[in-house]
Specification:
Length: 474
């Protein structure tokens, strides 16, 4: 019965399945909503333009605003205090009239955001708490079906067919286990999949061989580690993997290069949050930004200080509004992630679907070193992973008198001394490090080289640890 609800299963072979699926959702809304038809001023909608899609976003935003003002304790209070009327939202700039939603509010009072009875909740999820705030998100049956439908369309866009097998490589994490959710989604969508959460390299390779795996998906750090250790024993290119999808963590370019070189195929980033409904944006083969599920999400890029919308490709904070969520709809939700808006079209063939730029870091995970230079984990990751042979890494910041001391713990495969020299050069080349050294506010970085296999893999572990007792990061 559930499969009959998936539009992605009814699609034939098309050039851009994800874009076509998004267009289908817009046309369905057009056919069912007299208000949307009036706002477009059309009697028929056989093909969808960018202008139609933007009008759809505003229409669904107004509808969701009406919905949460009626069903959500949190939003009813917020909207009463601000006096917002959904009919006031007529342009993209009008979105700024609606207050942004803080993750802390959702973490503190998840049931204040719930818009359906608990008896209609099909699945609750608890976020992994990467930013320090664990949040509980609820999904209705229809919410889950929309997520599965979008995932199915995205996999088809990567060339996946019913003859392929997707190997799902998310190590099991208590209260955060996307592997089994994705496995269920694949089977419902008619795809073959196998969950492979084991950390042993030989077991992963045996699973690929046994199941005829043709695509991989998982945590970047996990797949990277497996790739680095496995390539010493196996010819990974001989497996004929079509594509590798990297989700739920930042993707440093050095890590991407190593993975692509090992397997001989594209490694594509995915972006999403549990609050959004897991993964909601995916890179195409151009690897210049991530195509967004614009049927279900409205993304904004704003200046975090002023709230003004940023220009195309200008970096700012990413906000999203869930356009169709029933259980926990979120309006202008702050992700604290730094990204940019990339308008269509794209060299991959997409004509109407926009992209967001690769996530550059989190505003709430930045710190300062030396002369007040702001640093993100990704800054050091890119430098360290520019050196081939790195398996894992961690940056530790401590205080030494009035100076900051940075220690880099590197699990490395290969010539340790040569690796140390190259990593030190890469770190010293960073402007943020140079500034601290020149102003005598930073000690020379310490590079600790560790033997391969000596570090236990911990999913979603902190790559930048600040051990200073008192330090103002704002």
């Amino acid at each position: 019965m559930a499969r009959r609800h998936l539009d992605s299963r009814k699609m034939g072979q098309t050039e851009n399945p994800l874009e076509d699926w998004i267009h289908q959702q817009v046309i369905k809304e057009f056919n069912s909503s007299p208000e949307f038809r009036r706002s477009l001023g059309k009697d028929k909608l056989e093909s969808v333009t960018r202008e139609d899609l933007e009008a759809y976003h505003l229409h669904r935003f107004r509808e969701q605003l009406r919905y949460v003002m009626k069903e959500s304790i949190h939003y009813k209070k917020v909207m009463e205090e601000t006096g917002i009327d959904p009919s006031d939202i007529r342009t993209f700039d009008d979105l700024r009239k609606v207050p942004m939603t803080e993750p802390a509010d959702l973490a503190e009072q998840p049931f204040y955001f719930l818009c359906i009875s608990q008896g209609k909740v099909a699945r609750p999820f608890t976020t992994s708490g990467t930013s320090g705030q664990r949040k509980r998100i609820f999904f209705s049956r229809d919410d889950l079906l929309r997520i599965i439908d979008a995932i199915s369309a995205a996999l088809k866009n990567l060339g996946m067919t019913e003859e392929d097998t997707l190997q799902i490589m998310f190590p099991t994490i208590i209260s955060w286990d996307p592997g089994y959710m994705l496995d269920s989604a694949c089977k419902l969508a008619g795809f073959n999949s196998v969950v492979a959460s084991m950390v042993e390299v030989d077991e992963q390779i045996e699973t690929m061989t046994k199941n005829g795996t043709s695509l991989l998906i998982g945590l970047p750090s996990f797949i990277y580690r497996i790739s680095m250790l496995a390539k010493e024993k196996y010819d990974l290119r001989s497996f004929g993997i079509k594509a590798i999808i990297l989700a739920a963590e930042p993707l440093p370019e050095g890590m991407r290069r190593e993975i692509q070189d090992a397997w001989g195929c594209k490694a594509l980033g995915v972006y999403g949050m549990t609050e959004m409904g897991l993964a909601n944006a995916i890179e195409c083969v151009t690897q210049d930004g991530l195509h967004v599920d614009e049927a279900d999400l409205l993304f904004e890029i704003v200046d975090p200080e002023t709230g003004e919308h940023c220009s195309p490709r200008e970096e700012g904070e990413l906000l999203f509004t869930s356009l169709n969520a029933q259980a926990t709809p979120l309006i202008r939700y702050r992700t604290y992630d730094i990204s940019s808006f990339i308008p269509p079209d794209c060299d991959c063939g997409f004509k109407t679907i926009a992209k967001i730029g690769k996530i550059q870091g989190r505003r709430d995970m930045q710190t300062k070193i030396g002369f007040g230079e702001k640093v993100y984990p990704l800054l050091f990751e890119e430098a360290i992973l520019s050196v081939s042979g790195v398996i894992s890494y961690q940056t530790i910041i401590e205080k030494a008198d009035f100076r900051d001391r940075l220690t880099f713990r590197i699990e490395f495969q290969g010539n340790q001394e040569e690796g140390r020299r190259k990593i030190e050069e890469a770190i010293l080349s960073l402007d943020e490090i140079q500034s601290g050294l020149e102003n005598d506010l930073l000690e020379s970085p310490v590079i600790e080289m560790l033997e391969p296999g000596s570090v236990e893999y911990v999913p979603k572990s902190a790559l930048l640890v600040d051990r200073r007792d008192v330090y103002e990061n704002e």
